[in-house]
Amino acid sequence: MEKCSNINTTINNLFKQKNLIKYLEKSIKTKHLVEGEILEKIILRSEICDKLEEIVKNLKVVKHCIGCEGLDLNNKDPHHHPTIEITQKCNHNCVFCYSKLTNIKPGIYGNLDNCIAVTISQYGEPLLYPEKVKKGIEYVKSLGLRCDLQTNGVFLNGNLIKEFKDLGLDLVMISLNASKPETHKKLTNVDTFERVLKNIELSAKHLHTIVRAIYIPNFNDQELVELAKKLNDIGVDEIMVHQLIVHEQNKRELEKISSLENVGRIKDLLLLVDKMKENAPDVNVTIKGCLLVQLKKMDGFILNGITSDCFSEIPIIKREYHPLPW
């Protein structure tokens, strides 16, 4: 997305929810002496509140998000790292992808004078043009910046990984959202699961490797838990779990695979990440940094009741445009 996501912290009608009864049943009454008067305070707590607070407390920012404007809560208009866009073409056709719903032209988006990292790329599959990716890495590293590559992993191979490492690529992010080939095909419309998993393992041996996974409630919950174990076994460094973002243009397609009524629930996201972490003790399993820093400011009662606004317009790049210099 163009902007770092801001969670919708409006807790409309929270006190009308059925869960409130459970909170009140477990509430603790405490007395405070204020100016000679005894005031009674109801503390709304429950085991799940404590658990959610503990989960958030232990989550760490993924390496890709370090340096992102979204980590600064004082920034009222945060944007992602600058990106190098090579193509919108892709060999996958993912049901949730926003890239196919808009039009962009190749180039550099963002101010390279005021950043620490550049991502290749936000749209399309860059490894359809590996030589252009190499030039992009060379250019970013010539500026002394961190270079992150985002890919679906299909076209990675040993030679490319070696070349990328020699050029100074800092990390690679590979998309995988299922633990079974048939589910992967349902999401991407291609049969590439085994190849992607193999290339993730290959990448993990040579580069800092992050797997990006989209969480679709009531569809791939359990498979992401199973995937976490696979990724732990092959030595992946980090897993970044993203909430599903729904656009009007892909809503109907998404509704064919799952109900969207639970999309955006922070409680469900955190409990899923916690289960994944249990299956992947050697991996930093986390969520995107711009969301995490906001959740760290909230108590368990809030975490248990809020929902991210995951129904969005198609993201439009508003960062300044520069043509590719090569």
UniProtKB/TrEMBL annotation:
SMART domains: Elp3. Transmembrane segments: none annotated. Residues 80-268 form the Elp3/MiaA/NifB-like radical SAM core domain. GO terms for molecular function: 4 iron, 4 sulfur cluster binding; catalytic activity; metal ion binding. It holds the Pfam family Radical_SAM. Keywords: 4Fe-4S, Iron, Iron-sulfur, Metal-binding, S-adenosyl-L-methionine. It comes from the Archaea. CDD domains: Radical_SAM. PANTHER family: ARYLSULFATASE REGULATORY PROTEIN, FEMO COFACTOR BIOSYNTHESIS PROTEIN NIFB-RELATED. This is Radical SAM domain protein. It comes from Methanotorris igneus (strain DSM 5666 / JCM 11834 / Kol 5).
